[in-house]
Amino acid sequence: MNKKVLIISTSLRQNSNSELLARQFARGAEEAGNRVETVSLRGKNIRFCMGCLACQKTGRCAIQDDMETITEKMREAEVICFATPVYYYEMSGQMKTMLDRANALFAADCAFRDIYLVTASAEAEYSAADGPIHGLEGWIACFEKARLAGVVRGGGAGDPGEMEGLTGKLDEAYEMGKAI
Questions:
Q1: Residue 114 structural domain
Q2: What is the CATH number of the domain that holds 121?
Q3: What pLDDT score was predicted for residue 51?
Q4: What angle do CA 52, 53, 55 make, to 5 degrees?
Q5: Which end of the chain is less enclosed by CB atoms within 10 A, N or C?
Q6: Where is the NADPH-dependent FMN reductase-like domain (predicted)?
Q7: 71 CB burial (10 A radius; 0-12, 13-18, 19+)
Q8: Which pLDDT band, with edges at 50, 70 and 90, does 117 fall under?
Q9: Which own/partner pairs from 59-63 qualify as long-range (CB within 8 Å, at least 24 positions apart)?
Q10: What's the pLDDT tens digit per position in 89-100?
């Protein structure tokens, strides 16, 4: 065990429902003996990808902002867990922007193998998280050694903190983290 786990919380709302799931995932991963770091995109300056592809030649993005540090953390992590709210049946815009900006990792020898996703949506139906899952699978497909190792579909939590009442989902996130 003792893997380097990076959790990226993409919600900009303080104590968001997806962040509550991320905390439970982190607690489980830590209790299993892993080294866990959580990064929140809240307050970060992450600009849109320009599509210049300079990163493919240099291994670094031409844009200098907070994404430089996040990309390096992603490169070094053995496990990554993304936490996102579901907006219009898709991942948050800030998560999509972050994944686009992680293009510098495409040609790199990254440590990550297992990718996890925890989602929180106001809609309770199981399919509410299909969009974020599909989008993340597209990103993962660019890394032949990586795989989507697990998902928590946290449906039915729209208001801030409402996830606290969905103990089954919190337990699911905890157990998924603990199983790393």
A1: 4-178
A2: 3.40.50.360
A3: 95
A4: 120
A5: N
A6: 4-112
A7: buried
A8: very high
A9: 59/104, 59/107, 59/108, 60/104, 61/101, 61/103, 61/104, 63/101
A10: 999 999 999 999
